[in-house]
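Run: sequence + heme D -> complex structure.
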Amino acid sequence: MKRIVLACSTFLLLTSGPARADAAPDAPKLFQSQCARCHGDNRLGAMGPALLPENLHRLRKNKAAGVIANGLPATQMPAFGKKLTDTQITTLVDYIYSPPEHPPVWGEKEIRASHIVYPAAEQASPSDKPVYDADPLNLFLVVEAGDHHVTVLDGDRLEPIKRFKSRFALHGGPKFSSTGRYVYFASRDGWITKYDMYRLEVIAEIRAGINTRNAAVSADDRYVMVGNYLPHSLVLLDAKDLSLIKIIDVKDDFGHSSRVSAVYTAPPRQSFVVALKDLKEVWEISYADDPEPVYNGLMHDYQLKEGLAETGRFPVRRIRLNDYLDDFFFDPSYEHLIGAARNARNGQVVNLLVGRKIADIDLSGMPHLGSGITWKYADTRVLATPNLKDGVVTIIDMHNWKTIKKINTDGPGFFLRSHENTPYAWVDVFVGPHRDEVHVIDKKTLEIVKTLKPVPGKTSGHVEFTRDGKKALLSIWEKDGAIIVYDASTLKEIKRLPMSKPVGKYNVYNKITRSEGTSH
Ligand code: DHE
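>> structure
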């Protein structure tokens, strides 16, 4: 563990002189001379991000070549176009998109060595008051992917109160502690950052994986669980200072390992629930001091014996399925999880009490269940989800798991958001050609009542509401982007705040009260 007293701001020069262009380029040598100082000798990342196929899968090779040639504005990645030939750039691209000769290791030693506890950790006290006069529960965190920063936004005055540099490429929703005092961010490169929302300071950081999916915080505020693609592991951290508690290898009975698709907390069950990319199993890991009563009250003895692969602290209960379950979504009682099935024809409902699939649902394509939401509709509750492949929002009755309606949209979309106090649900469609549009759906009629085009030609997506549900904040996902604030009932624009590719935004109150209109 490192204790950092002063923030270190070293500006590293990437190059060691022009590379020779005549001989056939030697990729490893070229990498060592041009890239290793920032991206690590072993490509696992250092000041710059990791450069391994798993970490790069979202970037097309020709784009990567462009980044090497032209650099990345607002980062320390310089342009190599004048120093390297096209052949050398292609060689580097091929190299970083190839698996390394020796599979990278990220185990206990590496995780512990990455641990940083900042002075703020010791200074923070339970009696602290916020260092600002805004409502701490109506703050928003806005993740700005353009230059890898986070803005803390006052949700009443709609003004930023702080902006700080984040780790490279944060992804997924930051997870708040139960009072909203602390928040935990996860980056795609595996960095977990704990931030104090009262003092507005970073408390601690640790790199839990090489390529991380997401993180969850236990409802009792004691643990953080991190799910990784690389290596195939779950990493349990102490939420106080992010120190490592346990690494759980993700393997089945035969030793087949799996990437983790997603991990979430199920508060009433005092457990983490984990979806696996490569095994037909869902895992439930209890964080209760004594998990027996939780499981015993809910399962037959047979399932208890069958289901618990490990005993002792943090036992892994393994629910076997007959299809893979990717991303998923809980019902409000946390008894069911609703997941996409790999067959791309239907979704599946798994009952956590009995530990098996209880229904198939009509969800084809690629529903983005992590952004599903629910609301009361007539005498039932519905689940609604957008779809990453089809221009459709599917509405499902949660009492019988039947589809009530498919709302056709102008394209596939990522995020659907609402709030208890608003009659509308907002869905973006930016995966398709109408990336500048957002539909507003009436939750009573299940009809699109308005299509907004906030900035023609510019990508718009991801909405989050103020704690009272009266205002909706929408992102314009461009380098010179913005947050646009709307009156959630008149749908009129109130304000624009310039931001650098603001991806997601997260309201403290809506998250800690587990609002039905947002993700948790
Ligand atoms: Fe996400 C959340 C998976 C690509 C922006 N995304 C999540 C979550 C999962 C997920 C499992 C929930 C994690 C959580 O909050 O704990 N995302 C995936 C994918 O499988 C996918 C399609 C491919 C991948 O590369 O991983 C994917 N996601 C993207 C993007 O391309 C987006 C649009 C831009 C980006 O930053 O990468 C993106 N994902 C987001 C955001 C959230 C998210 C903003 C949090 C939404 C929220 O309101 O909670």
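>> summary
The longest helix spans residues 86-96. Confidence is low (pLDDT under 50) at residues 2-21, 299-306.
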